[in-house]
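Researcher: Let's run the pair from yesterday's discussion. Sequence first, then tokens, for each.
Model: Starting with the first of the pair.
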Amino acid sequence: MKHSLFICLMSCFVGSVNAQEKPDPYTAVEAFFVAFHARNSVQLKSHFTDKAVIYRTGMQKGEPRMQQTSVQRFITAVSTRPEKPTWEERLGTARVEQHQNLATVWVPFHFYLDGKLLHCGYNSFSLYWNGTAWKILSLVDTATKTCEPLQ
């Protein structure tokens, strides 16, 4: 009985130590945007799992729509774009939820083209802790022209 209790307490302790060693999932989102703004295809690719998906949702002519883009197509579009016009995605205050090796990051954004606000919305990241780093399982965003100030 004492042996079983000791094993249970040790595994709970080891589990909490391992959980504490993981960086905040939001650091992966920040690193993703550093690579995005740098147009760095290698770094961008490193943030995704092999089977990650990207979607844009929104409204078109009053109807809900959803468009899927492959991660490779996204990376190519970002990394091969010309230096001008300049793309900038500014983020608001993120909401992060995490349990074990699964996390979600919900963050408002404003997207600027050469300093002019083009659209805004929310990014929803689903992240997976692979034992070494947080990796993006899915990235879904919305886009609208009706933009509130970022908070």
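Model: Moving on to the second of the pair.
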Amino acid sequence: MSAPRAAIAVLLALLVIAPTAAAAPSTCAVVVAELPAQPVIARRLEVRATELEGALTTAFLGLVMFASEANLDVVGPPLARYRKRGERVVVEAGLPVRAPPRALRAGLKVLTLPAGPAAVADHAGRLDALPKVTRCVRRWVAAHDRVAAGPAWERYLTNPMTTPDPAQQRAQVVVPLRR
């Protein structure tokens, strides 16, 4: 095969392979971090998947208002710990606090994120891609002979209302690990 024909063949192969490779990411950048136990004020939500974004926004606003009224020190970004995904979603919308409150408003609870190792992946981009990131982290956990120690959660590092450009949005996916 002549050099120009070989170059054309390589170019065609790259054009055929590249979209497939780009469409299905094969890896995600996962680090194992040692996390401290973290108290969280939370509201449990059970909603249709199509209602999740609005329900989380409403829950986070309510949690921020409660934290302010109760003089709680918020020590991190809002988070969502997923108990069930699918057509109906069961999730705990939470706000990490320095110490649990003495009293809670109806519908709120205190939960503690577990201390110990966790697989953590940073995400930049559209927040609706986070379920894919979670699946990627779970594949990483299995590939590295680790075992999840409970449900995953997402930390929302940017607020989509104040950072509407999806390219600027940031989040983390956290999967707690057994020792």
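Researcher: Give me one sentence on the second I can quote.
Model: The CA atoms of residues 118 and 176 lie 4 Å apart.
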